[in-house]
């Protein structure tokens, strides 16, 4: 039988069967409800029904259908199915539908003999499942309650009371607090119809809770009201009508501070199980824990509020695990604690600080000893200094090791230490002599002096330390000093005096100041400073002299000075001020700044700005200003103004005016020059870049392309093109565009060949500039619109000429903001000459290196040129040797003279207009001589013309007034132009022959073989060793001695072989026969 009465529902096919089963269950102690209508059987289940017993056969339906209906509403309610015609299939269906037990009916149709046993087992199992579910729910509710971190103590207690009351099936629950001889209700849950509220008070001895507190144990009462209270205890209001009572003590960690009680008022007696007691005691411990935790939180909050330091918990990785900082320490935090926790020190703090703290944490964990570290950190309170202490906390079995780190603000201490350090430094390094005197026992004993005191007085510290003034200076002078000290002690205030004390140093006059040091009016020490005033007196005299000098300077200087006090009254002005501003002395005598301003109002060019600045400076007494003022008469004044101050006292304002008209004009001129130089520098840089490109060009096309491309790579020029020139029958040249950059062919095709700036440059041989394409009459009207559409607003045409030979014209176009001045014009002219010479060089090289050349033979008979006249008059012969250009634009021509005295020939040639100088360079034994003729390079002779046009002069002779020339010109050289140029200087010149000749190709081995044949063995060895050892480098990599030593010859011998070897090589290159061989 079950220990407690249970209720069951029987569902049968008819009333008779129902009565039979009901009687059997009632005899077993069950309260039985019956239902013979399967459709309403679910509605017949009472709230306290603990089992359904159902027959399988129910007329139109079956017990399996009833089982399905019950399971839909009561999935856990025990269900016993009785089957008269049962089978395995029925049993399987019942189990699948969730039957609790299945048993066959009695063979005679009666109640099965083991029905009661089966129902008891079903009910007991149901109760166990219910109890297990209830306990699980209770534990979950308790866990949720105590684990919630956002609940207050009151909310936690109320939730625990509610959970406990529902789990125990009690009517109400209370938490009371012991206060003296009374109980105070802290929380109440339930209590329907009971007049109890939080805050009610009851005498301790009037309740069952008294025994809970006195015995410090759980008290259980069950039964009637009298049983609950006890026969000897009169009933009281709070316990009246109670059938069940469970009370347990609540502690604050050490003492019982109250009780947790649960009450029931059932009409029937219900026993209290051990489980109920265990639940209440568990709740008591939880409430006690909540109280302790709340008190701990209160204490922790108070501790945080009072704790002046920042407390941190870090793990071994330096990760913040907790942060404690009260209101007093919150300003010392580097970051929000919520942001810090979970991050490492290196993720939060600056690198240096993080490294120092991590090192302290590591050391604390490694050694187990307290570690200390100091660091500086910018926090909310500003830049602060901290002392951090790190202590390791063992992790144990339930967690890793931690480090408690406490950071204390030591800013004030650090600053005190630094002030003390600065004070000690000042004491040691002060220029005044400082001393400290102990006044204890009425004696004045010198404790210490600084180095300056020793230097000033000549008294060593060891000589005065521990001694009185009388012992150091004698009774008379020392007694006077003591009296001064006593005066300071008696008045308790600093005193200052001048004294004359003879000391080992030669200084005798001192200014001394002594101040008392003590507490509560008791002077314990004196600190004094003494200074030699002899030097100060001398300085005062020097200052007086300087003042007089400054006043003289103010009156004789070039600046106008004006001093105005705070009331804007004139305190001083010099005569120069009046002269600069042309102010009458009568106005100045009024000593009014405002009258002075009125006097100059019409003098300044911008009165409004002038007076606005004046008023601004007077409104801002501490402001300093400097600016330039323009006057109506065109002058400029430099205006400087500053406050006149002495310490913190301000006396007024100083105004200084200087006429800077000349400087201003120089500045404008200098700025203009700087701008011009900057532009010229850019052009010059551009030209240098072009020169570099020309050095690497091997053809005229490459040169022209490089020049045009480089000119348009910058913003100086938008377009550049080069055209070739050709003279017309009337002598005027035409210019045809050949190479361009920055425009297309269509633009070039429309440029006229004559009557344009390019043709004028070719005709005049000078740079032509069109400063404004839009308005300049020198620019063709037909091209004006298209040029402006391309952004061409200015242009320059540059002849590519060497002086006597013009190879073409360079044209550059500039944007609107670019002005082509005279300096740039000169640079462009130089560029034109450079390009012309480069073209000439390329053509000359082609003439020298071409595999096929035109051999030209020309004659000039009975010429009136200087060379011809000399040979005709002196009956001699001149043979042209070579021409050497010079950097100055002239050329040196060498001629061998035969048949006449070389000196006479030289004198005659030097008289020629185109000859700058003529000397005899070398004389031969046969009466011949080598003439060196310096010509102006202007192409005044056929020899110049051939060279200037890029041809190679292979032979030239002048005899009996006739000139015979043989030249080689590479294909591509303008032979007609060359002949025409020769005819221009020698009108009788004729082209005798012109033929294309192939040159012999010489291989490198052949050349080396010829050279080796010409050199002796010793010459070749000397040249090879010298070259290999860098003797010909600059600076030399080896000396002659170093080259000669391994060859076992002297340096003189080496020089002999080198000189002869070089002579041989140069002869092979320059002598005509050898040169042709090479």
Describe the structure.
The chain is α+β, with helices and mostly antiparallel strands. The chain folds into eight domains: 7-132, Response regulator (Rossmann fold); 153-299, GAF domain (Beta-Lactamase, 2-Layer Sandwich), CATH 3.30.450; 308-349 and 364-415, PAS domain (Beta-Lactamase, 2-Layer Sandwich); 431-494 and 524-532, Beta-Lactamase, CATH 3.30.450; 557-659, Beta-Lactamase, CATH 3.30.450; 676-834, GAF domain (Beta-Lactamase, 2-Layer Sandwich); 850-998, no CATH class; 1004-1077, Arc Repressor Mutant, subunit A (Orthogonal Bundle). Helices cover 41% and strands 27% of the residues. It has an eight-stranded antiparallel sheet. Strands 10-9-8-13-12-11 form a six-stranded antiparallel sheet, with helices on both faces. Helix 4 (115-147) runs antiparallel to helix 5 (153-168) and helix 33 (1017-1028) packs across helix 35 (1051-1070). The chain is extended.
């Amino acid at each position: 039988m079950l220990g407690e009465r249970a209720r069951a529902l029987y569902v049968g096919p008819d009333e008779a069967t129902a009565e039979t089963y009901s009687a059997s269950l009632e005899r077993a102690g069950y309260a039985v409800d019956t239902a013979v209508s399967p459709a309403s059987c679910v509605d017949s289940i009472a709230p306290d029904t603990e089992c359904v017993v159902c027959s399988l056969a129910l007329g139109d339906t079956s017990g399996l259908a009833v089982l399905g209906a019950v399971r839909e509403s009561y999935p856990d309610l025990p269900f016993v199915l009785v089957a008269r015609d049962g089978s395995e299939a029925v049993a399987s269906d019942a189990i699948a539908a969730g039957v609790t037990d299945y048993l066959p009916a009695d063979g005679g149709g009666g109640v099965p003999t083991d029905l009661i046993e089966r129902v008891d087992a079903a009910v007991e199992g149901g109760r166990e499942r219910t109890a297990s579910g209830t306990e699980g729910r209770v534990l979950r509710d308790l866990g949720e309650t105590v684990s919630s971190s956002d609940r207050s103590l009151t909310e936690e207690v109320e939730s625990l009371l509610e959970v406990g009351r529902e789990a125990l099936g009690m009517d109400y629950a209370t938490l009371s607090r012991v206060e003296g001889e009374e109980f105070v209700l802290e929380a109440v849950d339930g209590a329907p119809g009971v007049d109890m509220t939080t805050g009610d008070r009851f005498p301790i001895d009037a309740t069952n809770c008294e025994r809970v507190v006195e015995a410090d144990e759980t008290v259980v009462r069950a039964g009637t009201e009298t049983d609950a209270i006890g026969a000897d205890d009169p009933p009281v209001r709070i316990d009246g009508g109670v059938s069940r009572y469970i009370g347990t003590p609540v502690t604050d960690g050490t003492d019982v501070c109250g009780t947790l009680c649960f009450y029931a008022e059932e009409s029937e007696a219900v026993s209290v199980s051990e489980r109920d007691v265990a639940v209440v005691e568990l709740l008591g411990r939880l409430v006690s824990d909540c109280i302790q935790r709340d008190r701990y939180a209160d204490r922790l909050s108070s501790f945080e509020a009072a704790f002046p330091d920042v407390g941190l918990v870090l793990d071994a990785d330096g990760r913040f695990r907790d942060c404690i900082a009260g209101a007093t320490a919150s300003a010392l935090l580097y970051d929000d604690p919520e942001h810090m926790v979970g991050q490492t020190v290196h993720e939060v703090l600056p690198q240096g600080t993080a490294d120092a703290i991590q090192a302290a944490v590591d050391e604390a964990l490694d050694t187990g000893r307290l570690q200390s570290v100091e660091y500086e950190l910018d926090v909310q309170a500003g830049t602060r200094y901290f002392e951090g202490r790190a202590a390791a906390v063992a992790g144990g079995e339930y967690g890793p090791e931690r480090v408690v780190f406490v950071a204390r603000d030591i800013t004030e201490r650090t600053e005190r230490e630094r002030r003390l350090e600065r004070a000690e430094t000042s004491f040691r390094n002060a220029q005044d002599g400082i001393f400290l005197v102990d006044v204890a026992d009425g004696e004045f004993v010198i404790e210490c002096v600084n180095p300056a005191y020793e230097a000033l007085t000549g008294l060593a510290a060891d000589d005065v330390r521990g001694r009185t003034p009388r012992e150091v200076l004698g009774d008379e002078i020392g007694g006077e000093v003591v009296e001064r000290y006593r005066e300071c002690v008696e008045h308790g205030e600093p005193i200052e005096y001048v004294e004359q004390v003879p000391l080992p140093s030669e200084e005798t006059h001192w200014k001394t100041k002594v101040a008392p040091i003590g507490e509560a009016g008791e002077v314990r020490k004196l600190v004094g400073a003494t200074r030699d005033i002899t030097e100060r007196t001398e300085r005062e005299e020097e200052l007086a002299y300087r003042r007089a000098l400054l006043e003289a300077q103010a009156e004789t200087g070039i600046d106008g000075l004006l001093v105005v006090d705070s009331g804007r009254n004139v305190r001083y002005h010099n005569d120069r001020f009046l002269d600069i501003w042309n102010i009458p002395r009568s106005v100045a005598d009024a000593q009014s700044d405002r009258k002075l301003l009125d006097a100059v109002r019409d003098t300044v060019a911008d009165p409004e700005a002038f007076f606005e600045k004046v008023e601004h400076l007077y409104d801002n007494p501490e402001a300093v200003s400097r600016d330039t003022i323009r006057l109506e008469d065109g002058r400029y004044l430099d205006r400087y103004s500053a406050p006149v101050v002495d310490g913190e006292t301000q006396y007024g304002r100083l105004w200084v005016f200087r006429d800077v008209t000349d400087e201003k004009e120089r500045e404008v001129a200098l700025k203009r020059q700087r701008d011009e130089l900057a532009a010229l520098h850019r052009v010059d840089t551009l030209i240098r870049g072009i020169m570099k490109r020309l050095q690497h060009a091997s053809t005229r096309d490459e040169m022209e392309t490089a020049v045009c491309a480089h000119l348009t790579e910058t913003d100086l020029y938008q377009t550049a093109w080069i055209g070739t020139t050709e003279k017309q029958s009337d002598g005027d040249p035409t210019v045809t565009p050949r190479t361009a950059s920055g425009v297309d062919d269509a633009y070039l095709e429309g440029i006229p060949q004559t009557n344009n700036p390019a043709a004028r440059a070719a005709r005049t041989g000078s740079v032509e500039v069109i400063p404004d394409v839009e308005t300049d009459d020198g620019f063709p009207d037909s091209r004006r619109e298209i040029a402006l559409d391309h952004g061409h607003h200015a242009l320059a045409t540059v002849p590519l000429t060497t002086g006597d030979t013009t190879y073409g014209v360079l044209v550059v176009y500039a944007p609107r903001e670019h002005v082509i001045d005279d300096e740039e014009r000169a640079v462009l002219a130089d560029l034109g000459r450079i390009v012309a010479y480069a073209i000439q060089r390329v053509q000359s090289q082609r003439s020298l290196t071409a595999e096929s050349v035109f051999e030209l033979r020309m004659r000039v008979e009975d010429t009136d040129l200087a060379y011809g006249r000399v040979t005709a008059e002196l009956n001699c012969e001149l043979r042209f040797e070579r021409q050497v250009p010079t950097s100055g634009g002239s050329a040196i021509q060498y001629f061998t003279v035969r048949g006449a005295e070389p000196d006479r020939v030289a004198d005659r040639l030097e008289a020629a207009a185109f000859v700058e100088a003529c000397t005899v360079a070398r004389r031969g034994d046969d009466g011949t001589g080598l003439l060196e003729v310096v010509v102006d390079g202007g192409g005044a002779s056929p020899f110049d013309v051939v060279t200037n046009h890029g041809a190679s002069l292979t032979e030239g002779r002048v005899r009996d007034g006739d000139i015979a020339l043989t030249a080689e010109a590479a294909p591509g050289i303008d032979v007609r132009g060359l002949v025409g140029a020769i005819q221009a200087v020698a009108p009788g010149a004729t082209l005798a022959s012109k033929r294309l000749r192939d040159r012999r190709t010489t291989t490198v081995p052949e050349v080396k073989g010829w050279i080796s044949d010409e050199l002796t063995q010793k010459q070749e060895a000397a040249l090879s060793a010298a070259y290999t050892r860098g003797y010909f480098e600059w600076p030399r990599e080896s000396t002659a001695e170093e080259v000669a030593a391994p060859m076992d010859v002297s340096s003189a011998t080496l020089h002999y072989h080198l000189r002869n070897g070089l002579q041989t090589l140069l002869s092979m290159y320059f002598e005509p026969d050898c040169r042709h061989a090479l």
